[in-house]
Amino acid sequence: MADALDHYITWRLYRTELDIELDFADAQLDEPSLTANAPRLEAALDALHRIEGGAVANVDEGRMVGHYWLRDPERAPDPAITRAIHDSWRQIEAFAAGVRDGQILAEDGKPFTGAILVGIGGSALGPQLLEAALTARDSGPGFSLRVLDNTDPAGIADLLAETGTLAQTLILVVSKSGSTVETRNGMLELRAACVRQALEFPKRAIAITLEGSALDQLAQREGWLARFPMWDWVGGRTSVLSPVGLLPAALLGHDWRALLRGAAAMDQWGRVRPARRNPAALLAWLWHQQGSGHGLRDMVILPYKDRLSLLSRYLQQLVMESLGKRLDRQGREVWQGLAVYGNKGSTDQHAYVQQLRDGLHNFFAVFVRVLRDLDGQVTGPGMVEVEPQVSSGDCLDGFYQGTRAALAERGRASATIVLRQVDAAAVGALIALFERAVGIYAELIDVNAYHQPGVEAGKQAAKGVLTLQAAVLAALTAGPGGKTARELAEALGADPVAVWQVLRHLATNGRVSVDSLVDPAAAQFARAP
Ligand SMILES: O=P(O)(O)OC[C@H]1O[C@H](O)[C@H](O)[C@@H](O)[C@@H]1O
Known about the structure:
By secondary structure, the protein is α/β, with parallel strands linked by helices. It has helices spanning about 5-10, 30-35, 40-50, 80-100, 125-140, 155-165, 180-195, 215-220, 245-250, 255-270, 280-290, 310-325, 355-360, 390-410, 425-445, 455-475, 485-490, 495-510, and strands at about 10-15, 20-25, 115-120, 145-150, 170-175, 205-210, 225-230, 300-305, 340, 365-370, 415-420, 510-515, 525.
């Protein structure tokens, strides 16, 4: 009779060189369905193999999908790509060393002590994840990274207030396309702050972007301090191991080569056949089985380690932007996706775990367990005993094991990724594991994981709002009296609700005059005096 230990060993994948385990013992996977679906999984792995060999997997945009080459440049199908990656590494190494050793100085001759990264989506989430996961561990004192990832004036003001003088601050403007509005705005706001502080923006500005993009051209024209490449074969949400994530990591003093090594080692593991022995394939199969191939259950990401609390935010983009698709690759309407949320344990146990155990059964959990309580040291001697013979770390691990068991008891599935510690190699491996699982799952459900047609609709509509705002401002007359939103909308042939929405925002910010904003039909707007 197989006992619980046999069951665990049967559903455990372990890789010695990574010291990472994937524990599927509570994942409710079963051998018969895995055997029956082995051909599909093997075909998905074949497809990934072709992608790694340079297939144009992003058919709509006619692009190769090369994030796997970022950690193993020799795999790239074109020697020019291999060279470009190696060149970028050399450039990152030299620049970060120059900043950290004080050869690259600010205009006042003093060292740079921090950076503000301006970017959004894939151009911010990866660097944020790395900073949160690795900073305390690797960097030592002396360099800080702040991120400006929105066009919210209050957020920008807060960041500027926190930073104070920008004299010792590098400004990293990160945008693959080089034309993202939020990032442009953040850059313009920081440029204005430099002018206010009598500092030269180009002397501290660095661009990470596609060669020839609008941002790249601007950086060239103005002679920015440095320019680093992005490539069209790397998607924003898989760009963390390109200069997008590596340069900030290097500036922070992280072991970015270990990050690459960890990812490359996970890629190796992720190429293992048969699929039953392959961690990424089993993870993708878990998603498929739990959500019936239609994302019917959400993935709750629960790392029991504060430093990984941004993992779920990072994975939200990677998974949901890749898999959330209306059409499959045959053009059929499929409305696919896989919702991701989570923060960290045991914190979330005091928030929504109640529903996970007792409520709606529309999820499965992926735990991340970190065996070592404190990095690089054993805590035994001198540990604080919160109870006799019990440390805080014992409690944290107990909460993980307890929550997992409590969910299993109610028939809720989970998988656990077990790391020895949160170091650069482990973080690289985690990133690669999920990237590969996304690639495999996309093959299983037949969607293009590498485009994002859905994000355009909101951007276009926002442009329309600003066009309407310009028309409304032009149509307003100077007071007294004024016009209602309805009158203005009629004059402009526009939607009166849209006109009201624009006006109430402008009025609240003192850009137009209004008698009162209480009644949308009666409010009288006039040009601000
Ligand atoms: O790096 P950027 O070109 O500025 O793009 C930033 C982000 O915005 C877009 O809307 C995409 O949906 C994301 O995939 C991308 O990461």
